[in-house]
Amino acid sequence: MLKKLSLRQNLIEDSAVEPLSLGRLELILRDNKLAEVPDISIFSRVLVFDVSFNEITSLEGLSKASSTLKELYVSKNEVNKIMEIEHLHDLQILELGSNRLWVMVNMESLTKLEELWLGRNRIKVVNLCGLRCIKKISLQSNQLTSMKGFEDCVALEELYLSHNGILKMEGLSALVNLRVLDVSNNKLTSVDDIQSLTKLEDLWLNDNQIEILEAITEAVEGSKANSFPGFSM
After folding, report:
1. 183: Cβ–Cβ under 8 A, 6 or more apart, which residues?
2. What phi, psi does 131 have (nearest 5°)?
3. Residue of 72, 31, 66 lying closest to 48 (CA atoms)
4. Which of 155, 122, 154, 115 is nearest to 138 (CA)?
């Protein structure tokens, strides 16, 4: 009847992961010494799989994961390509922050994905592969210079883009469900394209190159009926 097995912060290496006869399970192997993705097929029907904070260089081996997987965490490793996840049709959370990713690929089939965390990588261009159901996206601390690419994410509620090189706020008008927008620590000179974001609650604009606040009043006019608690400059 075991539901969660956590072995985080141990000294587990690849050879130490052996078959266990366990069913629907949350398996935590973060903070160890894994150099590759363990053979997840030896655990039947894993629902949550966490191998963050290891020394993994490739996602090779995830093709053996059950299609029932709902949450996958591989942050703080050395992964350089998104691969072998196309069959994970029930995946809801994908965490690949703090790796060495350059491009966003192979996610077209993740139609149930709600959260995508890709902060602290080397991504230059947004490519969300048609993920229309996604609600949270983090691309903080990458190499973005443009906000284009989010136009089809109509269900998006939280968008984190701080610490990039973004020059202009654009492509936001269709994101009518957006509640949180973080574009701090970029190269913005003005506030644009948020007039239709009537559900916006948090707007982070600190550490940019904005000189005047004149555009703010007009930009948040539509939010007044729903309340606009504040924004950070």
Report:
1. 147, 161, 162, 166, 169, 204, 205, 208
2. -80, 85
3. 72
4. 115
